[in-house]
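User: I'll paste a sequence; please echo it back and then give the predicted structure.

Assistant: Echoing your sequence first, then the prediction.
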Amino acid sequence: MTDTGTLFLNQQDVIDAGAADVDWVGAVLEQVFKLHEEQAFTAPPSSFLKRPECPHVADRIIGLSAHVGAPFDREGMKWIASSHINPEHGLPRANAVIILNDPVHRLPIAIMEGALISAMRTAVVQALAARYLARPDSESVGLVGAGRIGALTLWAISKWFPDIQHYRAFDQNTGRLQAFVEHMGTLGITVEPVPCFQDALSEADMGIVATTESEPYVTASEFKRGALFMNVSLMDPTFELVSAADKIVVDDWHQSVHSDRVLARMHREGLVTRESIHGEFGAVVSGHIPGRENPDERIFWNPFGLAIEDIAVASAVYDQALSKGLGKTLQLVDQEWDVLF
């Protein structure tokens, strides 16, 4: 490969390349989980930049790097920064940049806006998990956390579960909850605002937590028989809730227990082991282990969020952008530099 420049893609370019298409992103992610099961990837532990004077769980910058095997065969990094005060200032809580490199010469082939890709892959992974782990006749979805990820997750689920009858949502910020309900209405999704998290989750066939809470509060009482509980955020579920599950499914066991989330804490206390969980989601997608086997199972789904998802979606976006003539080419690398020699 010779250097042909670095393609710069802004958010609109990323959208025009297909990153907001649930079906398209879903097909990419289904491939990703099969590659995960085949171990056709390399992904070191995430790098966290967190200053001690900023204790809030959402105040950090995370670097996630990975190589994803064929048909993508690309490597790169997502650099995602977050501040919990941003929404109060009219700013998105998280922003991100994704850099793609070719796997041979390691030249930077693309720099793109990454927050949309990050949010979409997070939401579509939940819809994909629902496809394999939720009851196919699910009628109700309950959400705690009326933010962007919650909105995208409900929207993605609605695309693949058109027969859902009830969407309920709770947020501690009533103004944000009302704005969320109004926004979802513009997407054709009627969401009932409820006064407490119990009302959102207790009767839900799919229960979703998407918050920045750092202490557990959701109990087994909010995890009904036959439900799928999606732990999209950090520490919302109690040990009791997780222990009530008939099956625990993770995206990556190693990542899940090397963090400060609920499964990692339970693992450190000897309450959850690799042998005690049902398995990794890639094994379900690949058909190596079953997903849901009966309508009464309670399944706890714990997605850590994997760099291979970001890099694969970004790689597919890059290919689409090239074919559509999107973006601007930058010349970051010219030739071997000789400034000092």
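The domain at 135-302 is CATH 3.40.50.720 (Rossmann fold). The longest strand covers residues 60-68.
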